[in-house]
UniProtKB/TrEMBL annotation:
The keyword Transferase applies. Residues 16-191 form the Glycosyltransferase subfamily 4-like N-terminal domain. It is an enzyme of class 2 (transferase). It comes from Roseibium salinum. Residues 197-345 form the Glycosyl transferase family domain. This is Glycosyltransferase.
Length: 409
């Protein structure tokens, strides 16, 4: 596809985890397509591992990587940060200002709107990546953030959702989008579809993800303890990741007497983490479209995951294998079943992988997003877009209730 070169700036608060993986893949693909791309993110977030990934990306972006202090919650410091970001974005003169996550989306749309008032022709695009949509609409924080999303919706030219679930959550909690909207699945590179083999010395289970309750590592630890209570032996397990609640999870492991069975690691590349254990466990309480699920399925690793967010869309006709989120008894049964029947787990992993490549690719992801940019600039005929109401749900999986079980953790 031949496109007119664009100046594209991505804005995100926290350059970690799946959201940064998405931006990194997208920015690299856009750069390789001949566009000038830049990234703006928080200066205080990220471990040594995350910062190495950011440093690797920096020389590839012609508009550079800029870091400013950005608070997670709404604070008075946001005013200072907004002014600094405004000056930087103004000088970059982007054609596309693409905000990711609640905070990045707010900065991008507010600053883009001010620049438009000054005569700049800037397209304002927003990708929630879960973000404020994880909050329950009947709780105070949910009401605040969803009201802000409704107000910012008036300053939005394009909306990109990473799953049918996320689109449904937006419509239910915020309202029907007025902006041109697309559902664009996260994508993987061709080399990520090479199966990962593990050795005889591999542990039984590995948790891979951020160390915070929303992702469920506490449930993972408790399930290991339950198996030890019922069998007399604790499964060997690894916990891979970093996050604000790591100290509490280490205390849980000590409290349950699992120190000899559980090993904590920092962040690792997913395909290295896969080699640590025979089965990957992702016990999330809420998700949008998690990369770790895609990476695990593509690597043909046995997987236990919960029925949240866009995960059923990945599993498709195999969605009945998913575990109810937040249900420690069912998670324990699933992990116990994996120990008893590894051959079944391996066969299920092969089945899942066989139907993933065509739908979840970086090439398709980049093409769909770039096409949306062009449409918003008026450079191509508008693509026929399905409604984001109930009739637009993917046939691959039934729509779920859009309220996250544990939205304020």
């Amino acid at each position: 596809m031949t496109t007119t070169p664009m100046r594209i700036v991505h804005c995100v608060r926290s350059p970690i985890g799946g959201i940064f993986r998405h931006i990194r893949d997208l920015a690299i693909a856009q750069t390789e397509a001949g566009h000038d791309v830049g990234l703006i993110c928080d200066s205080s977030t990220g471990s040594a591992y995350d910062n190495r990934l950011l440093d690797q990306l920096r020389p590839k972006l012609t508009l550079g990587v800029a870091r400013f202090p950005m608070q997670r919650q709404l604070t008075i410091q946001d005013l200072t940060a907004t002014l600094a970001l405004y000056r930087h974005i103004r000088d970059l003169a982007p054609d596309i200002l693409h905000g990711h996550g609640a905070k990045g989306g707010a900065y991008a749309r507010l600053i883009g709107s001010v620049l438009r008032l000054g005569g700049r022709n800037i397209v304002r695009v927003y990708s929630p990546h879960g973000g404020s949509l994880h909050y329950h609409p009947n709780r105070f924080e949910g009401r605040v953030y969803h009201t802000l999303e409704r107000l910012l919706g008036r300053l939005t030219d394009g909306l990109i959702f990473v799953s049918d679930y996320e689109a449904a959550a937006y419509e239910s909690k915020v309202g029907r989008p007025k902006a041109l909207s697309r559902i664009v699945y996260n994508g993987l590179t061709p080399e990520e579809f090479t199966p990962v083999e593990v050795g005889e010395e591999a542990a039984d289970f590995v948790y891979i993800g951020m160390l915070r309750d929303l992702k469920g590592p506490d449930l993972f630890i408790e399930a290991l303890y339950n198996i030890r209570l019922s069998t007399g032996t604790a499964p060997r397990a690894h916990i891979v990741g970093e996050g604000p609640d790591e100290h509490r999870y280490r205390k849980m492991v000590e409290k349950f007497g699992l120190e000899r069975a559980v090993t904590f690691h920092g962040a690792l590349p997913a395909r290295e983490a896969f080699k640590l254990a025979r089965t990957v466990v992702v016990p999330s309480r809420a998700e949008a479209m998690p990369y770790i699920i895609l990476e695990t399925v593509a690597a043909e690793r046995p997987l236990i995951a919960t029925r949240v967010g866009g995960i059923p869309e990945i599993f498709g006709r195999y969605a009945n294998r998913l575990v109810e989120p937040g249900h420690i008894g069912k998670l324990t049964l699933a992990m116990d079943g994996a120990l008893e029947n590894p051959e079944r787990m391996a066969a299920e992993a092969r089945e899942l992988r066989s139907c993933l490549a065509e739908t979840f690719s970086t090439e398709l992801m980049n093409d769909r997003i770039t096409t949306l940019y062009q449409e918003l600039q008026g450079n191509t005929p508008a693509e026929e877009t399905p409604s984001l109401g109930t009739e637009s749900v993917s046939a691959r999986a039934p729509r779920q209730a859009v309220y996250a079980r544990s939205s304020n953790r």
